[in-house]
Amino acid sequence: MHKFFQRALIVLVTTLVSYGSSYAEGQSDRLRLAREVIVENETIQLFDVMLPVIIKTMKPVLTQNNPKIERDFDQITNLIVTEFEPLKIRFADDIARLMAKRYTKAELRFFRSPTGREMVQSTPAYAQDVMAIGQKYAKEISEKMVNRMIVELRKRGHNI
């Protein structure tokens, strides 16, 4: 699950880093390069990581902690995952189209370079650190904000 979010953040951060791309370049060349980047950076493996995360998330909702249902749920998991495997190709194509739309050929070539690969590999750790800082502030702000809201609502006569 952790690796899925790291790779998802790679795609997100790299998408946000690039603002403009020259649409005059051939879309097919960019799409071909984008597909190569996806293969080289193993972005397609995000799909393989995503399915177990989805299943793990839905398990308590569907099984309601009933051991009999949990056992059956576990037994049918592989069958269900196999049924969704064909979506992997669409997933890769959608990501490739996004990259081809967002990046120039030069930028896509950069992602294939040693420096570009290193950047892609280091982005998850950086994004994770940024998220940790964000979570710290969110917790601090939310606690203070809840207390302030309660004070203000009580001033207005609400019994909270």
β-strand number: 0
Main β-sheet: number of strands, strand sense, barrel status?
none
Categorize the overall geometry: flat
Unreliable runs, pLDDT <50, ≥5 residues?
16-25
- In N-to-C order, the SSE pattern is HHHHHHH
Task: Please state roughly what percent of the residues sit in beta strands, choosing from under 5%, 5-15%, 15-25%, 25-35%, 35-45% or over 45%.
Answer: under 5%
Structural topology:
Elements: H1 2-17, H2 27-40, H3 45-63, H4 67-84, H5 87-102, H6 105-112, H7 114-155
Helix pairs in contact: 1-3, 1-7, 2-5, 2-6, 3-4, 6-7
Characterization of this structure:
- The protein has 160 residues and is mainly alpha-helical.
- The protein has one domain.
- It is 83% helix and 0% strand.
- The protein is built from seven helices and no strands.
- The chain has helices at residues 2-17, 27-40, 45-63, 67-84, 87-102, 105-112, 114-155.
- The relative contact order is 0.15.
